[in-house]
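Hi everyone, sorry if this is the wrong subforum. Our group has a chain we'd like a structural model of before ordering constructs, and none of us has done structure prediction before. Sequence below.
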Amino acid sequence: MSDATLTHRPLGVWSSLSGLELSQRYVTAAGVRTRVLEAGDPGLPHLVLLHGTGGHAEAFARNLAAFAEDFHVVAYDMVGHGWSDAPDEPYTLDVYCAHLDALLNELGIDRCYLSGESLGGWVAAWYSAHGGTRAEKLVLAVPGNVTAKPETMVKLRDSTRKAVLEASRENVRARLEWLFAPDNKQLVTEELVDVRLAIYSRPDAARTVEHVVALQDPEIRSRYTWTEAWCGQISVPTLVLWTEHDPTGPVEEGELLHSWIPDSQLEVMSGAGHWPQWERPDEFERLHRAFLLG
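Answer:
Right subforum, don't worry. Here is the predicted structure as tokens:
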């Protein structure tokens, strides 16, 4: 992709996808009807993208066309998120990882690269450390509140619950803008608000959101919180991708994670917050290519 194309790339979801040969389908994984977006030649290396808490596959809309040049790229709505089914149980890392592994099996993907943003990075790391054998490399993009700060857990829990239980354009926009660096709030488009408001207005949304924020409960989180012990079990090359303006934790948390994961490297992106794939897509994709294909 040329520099000119990257400089003038579209901002919106569908404008970003307009020239891309893209498929959307639903498959059943671990008993969950799951929405999957796919692009790129299936013969290319598989790159599976995992979104964050309260998110959905559109979080990677600005990246799919670029990634599809080098990868068979898969973005999906994790269990209880987006337009996938929402079983009535707390969504813990074990639940997310069982769903991920079942999905990869259903798609016929034996080996892949996993790239997760926020919660998605936490899931990818836990999966690899606890017996998931399909991932050859990991990218953990601002995987979120590594040191389990109570005030950050409360902020994420309360803002997510408010966006759902008091669903309005104002509350959904506020939830999205929290993710972005101070100078990037204008990147939250009306279209992006529309997508998330529709998801947060689903009939079962009030029940589902309590399961979505389960990992912000200190008792539940204590079973899964980041530690050197389990991070040391990650045996595949890992890129820890942090940003200068991540609202869940400073760069020092990325450095800590890097020190815990044996075969890892750390990159820090400037001018981005908790959605670097949307805020700085060119750099986000460049770092992926260099690490995954270099």
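For your construct planning: The beta strands are 22-29, 32-39, 46-50, 72-76, 112-117, 135-141, 238-243, 264-269. The chain is about 40% helix and 15% strand.
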